[in-house]
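The pair is quoted verbatim as follows:
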Amino acid sequence: MQHSNSLLALTVASMITAGTAAAHAAEAPEGKEKCTGIVKAGMNDCGTSQHACSGMAKTDNDPEEWIYLPKGTCNKITDGKVKS
């Protein structure tokens, strides 16, 4: 029984750590912005509601997929939208 409790505690701790890392990953680096709608398939920078990893975009120009660009660049690109 003690082994099961230890395993459960480790699992919960791992989930909390992963959640914290995901929250930090959601913030754009300084001088960058998230730009949606312009990403080529397989070239996205991070996850969406459909997947959790970079490089998993299945189609070009998916409005949910995004990449980091220097601030002020996204609005200069056709169909580019800054994700807040």
Q: What stands out?
A: The chain has one helix and three strands. Residues 20-24 have pLDDT under 50 and may be disordered.
